[in-house]
Amino acid sequence: MSMRKILIALSIAAAATTSASAATIWTSAGPGSDVAGACTVDFDGATCAAVSYGTAAGSITTGSVGGVTAQPPGSTGNYLTVGPTIGTPVDITIDAGADYNYFGLLAGSLDAYNTIAFTLTDSSVLSYTGSQLAAAANQSATGNQQQGIYWNIFLGADVFFNQIRLTSTQNAFESDNHAFAKVPVPATLGLLGLGLLGLGAIGRRRA
């Protein structure tokens, strides 16, 4: 790992609370997950039996609307968009016993005001802003609508989540091809070979 990547990881870790949890974040070419056995929700009909989406907010749509939403590069057909105009947040609920510790998504135009929050099975919350995700991949959270990246988040071998909350305080947080999996430690996945780009230690807070 380069010194720049180490410094990025340390700067993220500095923002953590005393009960921090380390997650492994890397990017891949996409438009889908490279993790073997991952179940993918593509918003065009492919679903995961253990995963359900709240319908009170957000929108499953296609195409782009100026000032409201932009389809992520690499996304085809429908995608999920979250924001004040469309509705926010969107909650993703995982059935008990699924034991998912990996989440992947194709995300376009990441912004600092986009947030992914994992509620873990011990009721603690692990949260990432768009800025933190972008920093882990040596990117900037500038809302670049030409930028489509597949983000992979591995929480740990024994760190499982039962909910994901996608939030955006401004328009918008667009994503597609959500992937879920229970995976072993990163070494057995060959994550370094997939191009590990960052490590983030983000604070947990008790719900």
Automatic annotation (TrEMBL):
Residues annotated as domain Ice-binding protein C-terminal: 183-206
Keywords: Membrane, Signal, Transmembrane, Transmembrane helix
Signal peptide start and end residues: 1-22
Keyword Signal on entry: yes
Keyword Transcription: no
Spans through the membrane: 183-202
NCBIfam families, per database record: PEP_CTERM
Name this polypeptide is given: PEP-CTERM sorting domain-containing protein
